[in-house]
Amino acid sequence: MTVPPSPAANVADNDFIEVYDGALDRAQCAALIERFGRSGDSHPGRVGGGVHVDLKDSRDLTISGRADWRDAEAALNTAVFNGVLAYLRRYPHTLIAPLMLEVAGEGGARHRLTAERLQAMDDAALAPVVRTVLRPASINLQRYTGGRGGYPYWHCELYPRDPRAETLHRHLLWTIYLNDDFEQGETEFLYQRRTITPKTGSLLIAPAAFTHTHRGNRPHGGDKFIATSWVLFQRAETLFGAS
């Protein structure tokens, strides 16, 4: 996985959209596409209000919770977690602004986790902190048919959909592009005026809120395949205990 350079001195350069090349290799991506094609279990892609092909035209397959996809889910979550560790070192307040966190220091004393301390932690120290605060969501594989499919509706990932408010626990969005043998099909961010060109195996991470309203442009000359999901906050009863 290729990690972007450290933050520039000019904070205006930080748009909170990061792309990590090589999160998966080409063989892994090809295998996921082949399994997706063989599954026969895909369904029309949904948006928050249901199936609306004028807003999103895709075939989706939720692989989480399925025994026959457990290995793929684990591989994807591992790739994303590695990307999240890199993302947090660039934007440490992703983790520490929502919560006041403390970690053990030398001699067992506890100290507040600052941005500087987080950035200095190695993966072995940072990983359990991240797992305490964040969790993976269900993963979808998606196929957008060339010349027809796409997600042209400008949308964000937060909305008050369900009684347990799982959709309001979404903190980051992520997408791994599984192929790039087509034209266009970019992920386009509205306010940042930035388009991400799909590259096989690359991982996109960005905030889930309205600030990063985005859409998926239509691919041409071939079908576009992605794996996509969110990084969620742990629920309050996990973080703070039952009330």
From TrEMBL:
<dbReference type="InterPro" id="IPR044862">
    <property type="entry name" value="Pro_4_hyd_alph_FE2OG_OXY"/>
</dbReference>
<keyword id="KW-0560">Oxidoreductase</keyword>
<feature type="domain" description="Prolyl 4-hydroxylase alpha subunit Fe(2+) 2OG dioxygenase">
    <location>
        <begin position="140"/>
        <end position="231"/>
    </location>
</feature>
<dbReference type="GO" id="GO:0016491">
    <property type="term" value="F:oxidoreductase activity"/>
</dbReference>
<dbReference type="Pfam" id="PF13640">
    <property type="entry name" value="2OG-FeII_Oxy_3"/>
</dbReference>
<protein>
    <submittedName>
        <fullName>2OG-Fe(II) oxygenase</fullName>
        <ecNumber>1.14.11.-</ecNumber>
    </submittedName>
</protein>
